[in-house]
Amino acid sequence: MNTSGPGGTTRTLAILRHSKAERPSGGADIDRALTDRGRRDAAAAGEWLVAQGCVPDLVLCSPSKRTRQTWHGVAVGLGAAGSPVVRYEPALYSAGARELLDLIAQTEPDVGAVLLIGHNPVVSTLSTLLDPDADRDSDGLRTSGIAVHTVRGPWTDLPTARAPLMAHR
After folding, report:
1. Which of 64, 106, 145, 162 fits as disulfide partner to 141, beta carbons 3.0 to 4.6 Å?
2. Which CA distances in Å does 109 have to 103, 105, 119?
3. pLDDT at 138
4. Residue 8's pLDDT is what?
5. Which secondary structure element, helix H or strand E, spans residue 59, and what is its range?
């Protein structure tokens, strides 16, 4: 979604916490896979994004197995509504919220909607930084939780701007 109005261009940033993942003993955290419920929830998240009119042009996704699988489920849920460019960004696995703001600020100006798929607590912190006054769950984003923010102006302004929460699930 990229619209123009009295305040200039309005963009959309959807922040998605990965879906429910397994907790096997041993193995690397980055290799954790989704549960069956997580796969279903990821597809439902994609359907919800379509219903909200928030189909991404760009997906920024952590390279972990569970976030990649979450994206694949979301893509199924999006169906024919969109086929965004997908970038797997290592920073989304380990960086803090301020670094993620800087990463998003590098988005090309013609991109109207970004879907960021990452991990808690960083994704919840990012949403709070963008709109500290929004009514939200005190536990932050739950698995498959989505926070959709309105970005007024260019992506480059995002690290210092507020972006109101317009919808969440």
Report:
1. 145
2. 13, 9, 26
3. 77
4. 57
5. strand 58-61
Query: Which region holds residue 97: left if phi is over 0, alpha if psi is between -120 and 50, else beta?
Result: alpha
Q: How many CA atoms lie within 13 A of 38 on its CB side?
A: 22
What pLDDT shows up at residue 2?
46
Sequential DSSP letters for 8-66? EEEEEEEEEEPPPB---SSS-GGGPPBPHHHHHHHHHHHHHHHHTT---SEEEE-SSHH
**Which of 21, 55, 14, 24 is closest to 41 using CA atoms?**
21
Reading the block at residue 152, the tokens are 């007024």
How many residues in total does the chain contain? 169
Asked whether 62 and 89 are in contact (CB, 8 A), the reply is yes
Distance CA 48, CA 70 (A): 14
Residues of the chain with pLDDT under 70: 1-8
Tally of CB atoms within 10 A around 153: 14
The Cα 65–Cα 32 span in angstroms is 6
Q: Give the torsion sign (CA, 152, 156, 160, 163).
A: positive
Domains of the chain, start order? 3-168 (3.40.50.1240)
pTM of the model: 0.94
